[in-house]
Amino acid sequence: xxxxxxxxxxxRFPALRRAELVYLDNAxxxxxxxxxxxxVAEALVSLQVNKGGAYAPSRRVTAxxxxxRARTASFLGASAPEHVAFGPNATTLVTLxxxxxxxxxxxxxxxxxxxxxxHANVDPWRQLxxxxxxxxxxxxxxxxxxxDLDDLRALLGPRTRLVAFTAASNALGTLVPVPEVVDVVRxxxxxxxxxxxxLAPHALPDVEAWGLDGAVFSPYKTFAPHxxxxxLGPALRARLAPPRLxxxxxxxxxxxxxxxxxxxxxxxxxxxxxxxxxxxxxxDVPAGSERTRWRSVYAAxxxxxxxxxxRLLRGLDRLGADRYGLPGVxxxxxxxxxxxxxxxxxxxxxxxxxxxxxxxAGHSYAYDLMYRELGLEARGGxxxxxxxHYTDASDVDALLDAFARL
Length: 406
Ligand SMILES: Cc1ncc(COP(=O)(O)O)c(C=O)c1O
Hints:
Elements: H1 6-10, H2 14-18, E1 22-23, H3 34-46, H4 56-76, E2 84-87, H5 90-104, E3 110-114, H6 123-126, E4 134-138, H7 149-155, E5 160-166, H8 178-187, E6 191-195, H9 207-210, E7 214-217, E8 228-232, H10 234-239, H11 263-282, H12 290-318, E9 322-324, E10 335-339, H13 345-354, E11 357-358, E12 360-362, H14 367-373, E13 382-386, H15 393-405
Parallel strand pairs: 1-11, 3-4, 3-5, 5-6, 6-7
Antiparallel strand pairs: 2-8, 7-8, 9-10, 10-13, 12-13
Bound molecules: pyridoxal-5'-phosphate.
């Protein structure tokens, strides 16, 4: 395989070509390659019609949307397109799902959430407490914020119905061993639901091989426009009533898409999947199924991102930054939480922005983790830098230089 072709990948991203900003806030939302922008523009110019109509553009947009659904199933490792529903974002989809799960549960049934998660996968489940569902919290262990399976086992019981957990922490970058968690949850007779939002730009999901009953992710973190996608496996689909409305779209195969979804976002996501194919071509990945080629791309991306993460971690340690999460590159994505020893994270983010470097600052919507588990409320959370496949060493060095000058 070729060395990672980061320069040619960057050349495909208009925002990166403009070189106005060093994008190290990718965990909040990724930049888009040209072909995604073109697909969105084409959808807006030529396909801004209702689906399910008899006229040509309507037939075209309906077929293209369903083709993207099928490819999304393949991306997730799901066996059939009807296991995938689109929505405006992950939070809305989890909220819809949690409401339906609540309808299927009885008073006294139990649900487990984690305090490693983004609250998109916590609060909709905690709200079930108002219906008499007992909500327990699986807490990560200090000092690195790692979820331990023994702690999960201690929370499970005969009334546990569902465990909602993240596959990767958007705040610390920590990876969670999804198949191992699913085994424990399944042994307790409960459903497992994973948040793949932070994982998907860094690792190819494999929902059915992992045994998940449900999962969610946001294509807009994976080089597509703002969009959410839900996977529901057979067990959940059999037990849950979807949010069926009287004007329910008969073309929606699993009835989890109330109303009209964004054609341009869905077709833009299809083009983001094409982009992964472009990366495969640039890597000289041999011909094969799309998913096999994506697997090779993600393997190369993991190596590239690990080198960047290592560079960033070493640089921050050299500069005396306070760091959170796992100490080294193992067991994490290319997302790093840190603080300046003297300055507040918001202040650091402003200073870095003045130097042309974009990072996040605060709680990363993982309040339980950042404030309660890591005790960072008084400090205002942390700074977060997040790299993806188009990040290069010059981005990391720009951040380190600007941090050193603060
Ligand atoms: C891990 C994780 N889960 C969920 C979300 C919420 O995603 P959305 O904006 O699609 O609702 C985010 C967004 O940052 C996230 O990082």
